């Protein structure tokens, strides 16, 4: 057993289906991010596009946040 580090295989395995769902959401976030970047290049004065790009970046990071949360919830 590896109880001294961050090795929690049960949390990792339980989190895989949810990480897959958030991976799909992150793909949507990538599309939103690309469209937002193109719109911000066309009209840099739009503040709402910047908020849209920031939201898309959080969607892209979603699988990592989900896996970290699941592995932290399962005790060693």
TrEMBL record:
<feature type="transmembrane region" description="Helical">
    <location>
        <begin position="12"/>
        <end position="39"/>
    </location>
</feature>
<keyword id="KW-0812">Transmembrane</keyword>
<keyword id="KW-0472">Membrane</keyword>
<keyword id="KW-1133">Transmembrane helix</keyword>
<dbReference type="InterPro" id="IPR055283">
    <property type="entry name" value="TAXIMIN_1/2"/>
</dbReference>
<protein>
    <submittedName>
        <fullName>Uncharacterized protein</fullName>
    </submittedName>
</protein>
């Amino acid at each position: 057993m590896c109880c001294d580090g961050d090795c929690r295989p049960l949390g990792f395995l339980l989190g895989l289906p949810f990480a897959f769902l958030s991976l799909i959401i992150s793909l949507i976030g990538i599309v939103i991010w690309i469209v937002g970047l193109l719109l911000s290049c066309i009209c840099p004065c739009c503040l709402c596009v910047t908020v849209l790009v920031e939201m898309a970046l959080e969607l892209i990071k979603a699988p990592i946040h989900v896996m970290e949360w699941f592995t932290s919830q399962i005790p060693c």
